[in-house]
Amino acid sequence: MTQALSSVDPSSALVDPDERRGGTGTARFVLTKVAEALASIVLVVVLFFFLFRMLPGDPVNFMIRDRPTDPRMIAELREKLGVDKPMLRQFVDYIGGLLHGDMGQSYIERRPVLDMIGERLWPTVLLVGSATLLAVALGLWLGVRAAWRRGSGFDRVQTGIALTLWSVPQFWLGLLLLVGTNGLFPSRGMHSPDAAPDFFSQGLDVLHHLVLPCVTLMVVFYAQYMLVMRSSLLGEMNADYLTTARAKGLRDDLVRRKHAVPNALLPTVTLVFMQFGMVVSGAVSVEAVFSWPGLGQLVYEALHGPDLPVLQGVFVVLASAVVLMNLVAELLYRVLDPRVRTA
Amino acid sequence: MVELRTLRSSGGRRGSRAVALLAAAMLLAGPFAVPAQAQQGKTLRVALITGIDHLNPFTATLAAATQVGRFVYEFLTLPSARDTQPTGGIAEKWVPSPDKLTWTFTIRSGMKWSDGQPVTAKDAAFTFNRMLTDENARTANGSYVSNFASVSAPDDKTLVIKNKVPQANMLSLDVPIVPEHIWAPIKDLNDPKTDDMSVVGVGDGPYLLTEYKKNEYVKFKANKDYWRGAPKVDELQLLQFKDAEAAVNALKQGEVDVINRLTPTQFNALKSEPNIATNTAPGRRYNELIMNFGVQNNANQPIGDGNPLLKDIRIRKAILQSIDTKTVVDKVMSGYGQVGGGTIPAIYAVNHWEPTGADKVNFDAAAANTALDQDGYAKGQDGIRVGPGGAKLQFRLTGHSSRPFDQRTAQYIEGWLKDVGIGVKQDLVSDDELNDRTTAGNYDLAISGFATNPDPDSALSLNVCAGRPNAQGKGGTTATFFCDPQYEELYKQQLSEFDAAKRSEIAKQAQARLASQAVDVVLDYDNVLEAYRSDKFSSFTKQPQPDGVILEQSGYWGVYGATPAGASADSAAAGSSDSGGNTGLWIGIGAVVLVVLAGGGFFLARRGKTSDDRE
Amino acid sequence: MTTPEKASPRAIAWQRRRASMGKVWQEFATNKGGLIGLGFLALAVVLALLAPLISDESGLDVTKAAGQPLSPPNGDFLLGTDIDGRSILLMTFWGARISLLVGFSAAILSVLIGTVIGVTAAHFGGWVSTVLLRFTDFFLVLPSLVLAIALSAVLPQGVWTVIFAIGVTAWPTTARLVRAQTLTIEGRPYIERSKALGGGHLHLIGKHVLPGVAPLVLANTTLVVGNSIIADATLAFLGVGNPAAVSWGTMLETALNNGAVTRGAWWNLLPPGIAIVLIVLAFTLVGRALETVLNPRLKGGH
Description:
The structure holds three protein chains of three kinds.
Chain A: H1 17-22, H2 26-53, H3 59-63, H4 71-81, H5 87-99, H6 113-148, H7 153-166, H8 170-181, H9 199-237, H10 240-247, H11 252-274, H12 276-290, H13 295-303, H14 308-336, H15 338-342
Chain B: H1 12-32, E1 43-48, H2 63-72, E2 77-79, E3 86-88, E4 91-96, E5 102-107, H3 121-133, E6 148-155, E7 158-163, H4 180-183, H5 197-200, E8 207-213, E9 217-222, E10 235-240, H6 244-253, E11 258-259, H7 264-271, E12 276-291, H8 313-322, H9 325-332, E13 337-339, H10 365-374, E14 378-379, E15 385-386, E16 394-398, H11 404-419, E17 423-426, H12 431-440, E18 445-451, H13 456-460, H14 485-496, H15 500-516, E19 520-533, E20 537-539, H16 557-560, E21 563-564, H17 567-599, H18 602-614
Parallel strand pairs in B: 1-10, 16-17, 16-18
Antiparallel strand pairs in B: 2-3, 4-5, 5-7, 6-7, 8-9, 9-10, 11-19, 12-18, 12-19, 13-19, 14-15, 20-21
Chain C: H1 9-29, H2 32-54, H3 88-124, H4 126-141, H5 144-154, H6 159-167, H7 172-186, H8 189-196, H9 201-237, H10 248-257, H11 266-294
Helix pairs in contact in C: 2-3, 2-11, 3-4, 3-6, 3-7, 3-9, 3-11, 4-7, 5-6, 6-9, 7-9, 9-10, 9-11, 10-11
C-alpha cells in the first residue's frame, strides 16, 4: 500500500548492473538467490518475534478477562504458555517449534496457530489470486491499447480513470460498493449456509461471495500494471526493429501483436510477482470490510487483543510468501530476459 | 526503459481475453446465484459479532462459543426466563443439607440424548468429575468446580455434590452436562476432533448441532424430542460477522433475523426500517471513570505512576462536578442508558442507590472552577491550572481503544475538564494493555466498566480491600483500588444479612460511602440494544420478562422461544423482500455497468482497431 | 545568456542550476495533469495552514458541538454533522491538517532514510554496499502495510507513531532509485576529475551527488506522500491509528464504528473519502509529471 505508483520499469530493481556484467553461472545464481530468500525469511521470523515481545500487556490477564478464575488456573495457564520464561529461552522454544511446524497457541482461541492459519489460507489465496489475475488481464489489455493509441482520448481517459482508482483507499471503495450494490451480492463471508451441498452450487455460491471483494481489490491494483505496460510498450515502439518491421510492409496490428507486445510483457510479468506484497496488504483491509474468512481478517481480529502468537504467525507467513514471490520474480526474469541469460 | 530485443510470440493476449471472460462470468453469476431463501420463518438466523473458538463445551471460552453449549446441552438448573430465579433443567428437584455443604439433585426421568440413550445422574457426575480430574476440562468453566470436594451418582436419578465451603451459585452452575457414553472414551479434550459432529452432535438441549464452517457459521436443527417441547423453528444458524455494522447490513438485506450489540445510531436507524422490530432492555453493566487517588496493593504499598495531585480529594470532587453524565447518556448513548448513580445498575432497583440531596453532585463547571480557584490551583497562562508546588493539573486519560464508547466519551471528558482548567491527554490502548496499566496503577484517569449480577455482592465486591492485587501485582479484581474501613464494615454486614430489605439498605449505604470518596464517576448504565426481522418472527422469549433481552441471556430462552410470524405475514414479507431485491438488483446492475465502463472502453478500442486494420 | 565576465564558480553553478530549473518548469508546465494537481495541492496546503485563522477550532470540541447528531446537509451545516453534532465541513477542513502532516512527515522520513542508504550504498561500494543492498532488499519485499500495522500495534498510539510506522516501511523503493541515480552520476567524467583533485567524500556527495539526485528524490517524495495518506487512513480503519486526532481516517472510522452507514449518513462517509482521493490523485499527478520530466529513463516514452 505504501509503495509508490511509478511508471519506472520495476525490473530495474531486480537486475543489478554488476550482475549483468559479471555473467555468473545459472546454477550459482539460483543457489545465491535461494539462499538470500531463506536468509530473508529467517530475518522476518527474528524481526517479528522481538517486535511483538515489545508489546505491553500480560496475555494471561487477557485470557481470563471477564471470567471467574482461581489462582491455580492462572498458574496452569502461565506454565502452558511459557510466558514466565526468559525472552531468549522463549525465542529458542519458538524457533524449535517452528522447525516442527508449531507456531504456538492462540491466546484468544486457545488453538494451534498453524491450524488457524491453515483454515484461512485458502480463502486468501482465492481472493488474492483471482484479483491479481483480473488486474493483470485488465491492466495489460488497457495498457496495450493506451500505448498504441497514445495521446488519444482513449489513452487520456483510461489513464485518468486508472490514476483516480489508484488513489482510492481500498476499504472505502469496498464500503461504497457494499452500500451501492445494496444486497445484490452477499455482504459477508464466502459461503451461505443455505446453498445446496452439491459441488456446482457450492462453487457458484463462493463465486457470488467473491465478486465484491475481488472487484474492490482488482480495481485499485490494475493501474500499476496498465501504466507499466503502457510505458514499456511505448519504449518498444520507438525501437529500431519495429521501424524495420514496418518498413518491410508488415501491418501495424501484426507488428504490435507479434513483436512489440511480447517484449513489453516482461517487465509487467515480473511486476506481478514483485507487487504481490502490495496485493497482500490490500487484502488485509478488503477482507476486513467483507468479513472474508482469510488471513487478512485473522489479522484484524487478532489486533483486538492483541493475540500475539496469531499476529506473529500470520505476519511470518505473509512476509515469507512475499519473499518467495520475489524469488520467483528474480528467477523468472533470469529465464525470460535474454541479456541476462546469454551474458 | 530497459531495452529488449527478442521476438517471441506469446499466448498472453489470448490468455488475457480468457481472464476477461471469466471476470464477466463472475459478474454475471451474481444475480443468478442468489441463494434460495430458506423456507420463510422456519429458519432462525442469528448474527454473531464475536468469534467461536471451540464447539467442545469444555474448551469453548469465547462468549459466542459458550452460547453454542447452552443451546445443545441442558443444564442441571438454570436462571428462569421470567425473573432469573433458578429453575429446573436436568434436575427437577434439589435440596441443600442444613450446613449448605451437600447438595442433592433429583434428575428428571424420561429425558433422552439425541442418539436415544437416557440422560441420567451418571452423565452429570461424569461431567463434573472430569472437570475435577482433567485440567483441560476446566478450561472454560473451571471456576464453578474449584470448591467441589466430591461428586457422585448413587443411582440414575440422584446426584450428590459435596462442597468444601458453602457455595452461593450452586443453582446457577453454568456448566453444560455432556453424555458420558460419548465423552468418556475421549482422552485428550484439546483434540480438534472434539469439535466434530460425531462428538458435539449428540445433545439434549433445544437445538442439535449439524454443521460447523469455521469462522463462518454454525448450523443447528431443532431437537424434536426436547423435554420442554420442540422449538417452533426447524433450524437455527449462527452467522459470523466482522462487526455490528456488517450484521446490520445483513439484517436489512434479510440475510439474518436477529442481531444484538447495536450502537445507538444503528438502533435508531433500524427503528424506522420496515419489517424490523427493535428491542431495548436495561443493561446490567455500568461504565465509570476511575481516578488514581494514590492506589496501593494488598499489602498497602503504594504502586503505579499516578499523578500525585489526584490524591487531593478536592481535585477529584471538582472533576466529578465537571463531568456531565446526562450528556454522556444523551449524546454518546443517544439516550439508551440511565444516568449513573451507585455501582449497582438501575435495573436492580432494589439495591440501586440514587444520590439525593447533599449527596447529589450536579454538573456545574462554574462551581468547579470557583472551588479550584479557592483551593489554590490558579490558572496558568495556557489555561491549565497549577498546583502550589508548580505542578500542572495535567492528567492522562486511558481506556479501550477499540470501544466506540471509550473513544467518544474520552473526547467529552477532555472538553469538560479543559473548561475547568484541567489538561487531559488521551491515551487509549488495547484491552490487554489497559488491563495491565490499571492493575499496576499506571494511570491517572481511566474509562472502565463492569457487568454485574442480581446479587448485590457482585457489584459491591469490586471495591473491597481484598480485591486489590498482591505484592506481585497479581490476583486483582478491584475496580478502583478502593479500600475504606467504613465500606468494608458495610460490605461484611450485607453478606451476613438475610433480611432482603435490610440488606438492600446496607448495600445502598455502601454505594453512598464509595461515592463520597470521589474515587470514581459512574457515568451511565448502558441499555442492551437488539433488533429482529418482524416479518419473519413475531416474538421471542425475553429474560427477564417483560422487558428483558433476547440474545446473551443466562440460558437458551430467547432462541428456544422464537415464534415465526404467521402465514399471512409470510407472504407479505416475501413480497416486500422481492421488491427490495429488485431495487437492489437495479442499483447493482448500475454499479456493474459502471465498473465495466471504467475498466472497458471495449467497443471504443474495438472500433479503433478495425479502423487501424483498414488503413 | 548573459554571463558576467568574472563570475565565481559558485555563481556559475547557481546560474546553470537556475536555468535547468527553468527548463524543468517549462516541461512540467506542458503536462496539464501535473499543473492541475499542483494547483490543487497548493490550494489545499494554503487552506490547511490558514485553518486556524479562517475557522473556529472550538467547533471540533464535542462538548461545544452546535448541531444535532447526524443531521443531513442544511443551511447551517453545508455537509451535515457527525455523530456528536459537529460540522463535517469543518472536520474535513481541519482533517486536512493531520492528513497532510502525516503524509508529508512520513514521506520526508522515508525519503530521508532512502536517500541516505541509497547514496551511501552507491558511493562507498564494497561490503558497505552489499550489506545495505541486502538490507534494502529485505525491506523491499516485506509487505509494508503489514509491517506498519505491527509497528502501530506495538508503539503507543499517536500521530507520530503513525508517521514513524509509515516512514520506516516505505523507504526501500527510494533507496533503490537513489542508488541507481547516484551510480549514474558518479560515473560521469567530472566526478572522476573531482576525485583526482582530492575532493573528500563529503565534498563529492554534497556538491555533486546530492544536487544530482535531488530532482528524482523530489518526484519520488511526491508519490510517497499520496501513499502515506492512504496508509494513514487504512491504519485508522483497522483501529491502530490515532483516535484522538481529527483526521480523515478517524472520521471514517468513527462513522463506521457508530453506525453512520446504517443510518444512511452518506455525508459522513463521502467527504473524507473524496478528500483523500482528490489529494492523493493530486500528489500522484504531480509526481508522475515530475518523473516524466526528470527521469532520463522515461524521456521519449511520452
